[in-house]
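INTERNAL AUDIT FORM
Audit reference: QA-55
Scope: verify that the stored structure record matches its stored sequence.
Auditor: D.O.
Record contents follow.
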Amino acid sequence: MKTSAFFVFFSIVLSIYGAASFYVYIHGRNALSGYGFLKLPYTIIFVFLSLSYIAARFLQAYRHSDLSNFFLLVGSFWMAALVYFFVASLFIDIIRGINHFVSIYPAYVYHNYEKTKLYVLILASAATACTLAYGYINARSSVINEYVINTKKNLSGTINVVVASDIHLGVLSGSKWFDEQVAKINSLNPDVILLAGDVIDEDVKPVIEQNLGEHLLNLKAKYGVYAITGNHEYIGGVEPAVKYLTEHGIKVLRDTSVVIDNRFCLIGREDKDRKRFTGLERKTLDELMKSVDASLPVIHLNHQPSDLSELEGKNIDLSISGHTHHGQFWPNSIVTNLIYEVSRGLVRKYGTNIYVSNGLGTWGPPIRVGNRPEIVKFVVSAE
């Protein structure tokens, strides 16, 4: 990414984060207006939580350590907490605005206004803590979703295709969790395993330090394991990431196609953010299709589910994406539904089957609310 573009992006993100934090901070401080002795500890705790993620990123730029990991964990949870505190603050402002024009507060609130504000703060904090606890457990509890994909092309028998997208291997993923996911994938007796981008969560160093590649080597499929690049491989350095994956048994398809056992064809796209980080365009789907035998079942891997209309008329049987996490936790799913034509699930569109996965891992906050992490099995068979 060009330096100027990075600073513009960083400035925008930091501005939004700062504005949201200030909005929540003021509401919390206002809730303590009748309890002045709590304002200083509240401010200290709030500032510590708000700066934890930023501190982690600066420390990681120097080197990964237990201290940087601690700040990353605290800061990641706080990012999710901030979203829910922001929603709660906005809801309170709406109620307060309504009450300004139409009195809806019960008499108790008027007679115990300072105490009521403190109770609301405690209630919001407890509700947020419970939501984060549920979201963390949910994020560690993947499900297996199975689909049958029928093709009109010649195909003897069936092909078991197992897909995992957005694993985000890194500091917060953990060796034990990934070992469990590998066992689940292998239990599905895959003919081929497809990793649909964002296998590595930015920097490859934590993956090396935890030796997570050992678990990648344990993935077993008749025709092997294939992957594509995602935007996070580019964020952390695409060449070291691809090198590490290749050294651990993963065949990375980078704007190329491959015929598997003369039975089906895989097309693997470079992530669309390649241009943003390197200035180089990725190949168009039209260019890639020139070397594809479309008489065989064709599976298309494209990390970000954008420009889906380009699939029209390409004779592709199944297009697989990830990236969205379906927002990962509510209410972010509202945003991904607005941004993406398909935010999650299987749809039949543009003459093909399009699947957008929730993903298996998490980015940022290690929580999921409103969707489940998934491993997907497709059984491709002739009609």
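Auditor finding: record pair retrieved intact. The radius of gyration is 24 Å.
Action required: none
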